[in-house]
Amino acid sequence: MATSPSAALAAGRRRSTRQGAAIDEALAAADGFRTAQALHDELRHQGQAVGLTTVYRHLKRLAEDGAVDVVVRPDGEAAYRRCGPSSSGVPEEHHHHLVCRTCGYSVEIEGPEVEAWAHRVAADAGFTDVSHTLEIFGECGRHERPYVDTVSQ
Amino acid sequence: MATSPSAALAAGRRRSTRQGAAIDEALAAADGFRTAQALHDELRHQGQAVGLTTVYRHLKRLAEDGAVDVVVRPDGEAAYRRCGPSSSGVPEEHHHHLVCRTCGYSVEIEGPEVEAWAHRVAADAGFTDVSHTLEIFGECGRHERPYVDTVSQ
DNA sequence: ACAAGTATTGACAACGGTTGTCAGTAGCGT
DNA sequence: ACGCTACTGACAACCGTTGTCAATACTTGT
């Protein structure tokens, strides 16, 4: 109790469930992006078993609500991360990520100039309804964390 | 046609086949990105039947050789496009794309500033072995072309 | 506290894109 | 022409993700 439980879920008229809270917590505990399956594994190992389908459903909803950021990795798999301080209900500002290829650790980055550039380029070419994806990948060099991923183990 | 068949395939010690040439031509005729399946369909309709597996194989190889650019769409599907004038064997310079969401039409774009910015940001955060993805999507507003896609038909 | 109504759950099947398999085919050097 | 072997392609297997639907458990009204 204490600190109003399911604070992050209390967005509105949704029912708060054990599973939802567990997913929320796991997401909060993660310091970076996690795939649905990785999240499912973590929950499993923590004893908080949640169906894979349920994990996908929550992630999808959270993504729609703008509560989590989604990154599509080069191999086509999607990874999620809790978006900023959030819980305020107000979608975060547009931003991108610097993601560690190995452990998923990520940093939010903003580049107003880049945003402007992208729109200018698109407009110059006569494109409308413009959007863009921009993610920077690299090695953070300090992933000591026992990160369980889909990769190995 | 136009003499010197498989000009673009003549990279080295590879056998030139009817299928390979067909894929190459279709890729050359396309004015934008195509998914493997879309390409397969086009070839089929042109009477140049080629196995889907073969299309995937060629695309994969071409991508490895740097002969085609690959874009992973938000839904996780991959789309390919012949890379620049190419055929020289020398991989194109690093660049990105402005892609029409509807017809696949695309324009290559370069942004030295953005590249520099991306690397600077990553370096500042202590990341190494940096790479990035950047694609701009929009509506080109003039896709009159009878584009056959996986969507319909 | 209890009952009723309905969102949520989760095991399982289905789906769509992509890759592995492997016998048959066809370039290419000799 | 011959033989070697890369290439081909129908098909099955994979894998991430979504649909299905009966069972479950939040919530609200009483």
Description:
The structure is a homodimer of 153-residue chains. Chain A is of the alpha+beta class and 153 residues long. Chain A is 31% helix and 22% strand. Chain A has helices at 18-29, 36-45, 52-64, 112-124; strands at residues 34-35, 68-72, 78-82, 96-100, 106-109, 128-139. In chain A, the strands form 2 sheets. Chain A has a 3-stranded antiparallel beta sheet with strand order 1-3-2. A 3-stranded mixed beta sheet of chain A has the order 5-4-6, covered by helices on one side. In chain A, a hairpin with a 5-residue loop joins strand 2 and strand 3 (78-82). In chain A, helix 1 (18-29) packs across helix 2 (36-45) and helix 2 (36-45) packs across helix 3 (52-64). Chain A binds chain B through residues 72, 74, 76-78, 98, 100-101, 107, 109, 111, 113-114, 117-118, 121-122, 125-142, and chain B through 72, 74, 76-78, 98, 100-101, 107, 109, 111, 113-114, 117-118, 121-122, 125-142. Chain B binds a DNA duplex (30 and 30 nucleotides) through residues 14-20, 35-37, 50-54, 56-57, 60, 76-78, 150.
Order of helices and strands of chain A: HEHHEEEEHE
Cα(first) to Cα(last) distance of chain A is 35 Å
Portion in strands of chain A: 15-25%
Strand order of the largest sheet of chain A: 1-3-2
Q: Most extensive interface, residues per chain?
A: A-B, 35 and 35 residues
Number of strands of chain A: 6
| Coarse morphology of chain A | globular
Query: Can you summarize the main beta sheet of chain A?
Result: 3 strands, antiparallel
Helix content of chain A: 25-40%
- The radius of gyration of chain A is 17 Å
Tell me, rounded to a whole number, the average pLDDT of chain A: 82
> What low-confidence regions of chain A span 5 or more consecutive residues with pLDDT below 50?
1-12, 145-153
**Secondary-structure class of chain A:** alpha+beta
Q: What is the number of helices of chain A?
A: 4
What is the subunit organization of this protein?
homodimer
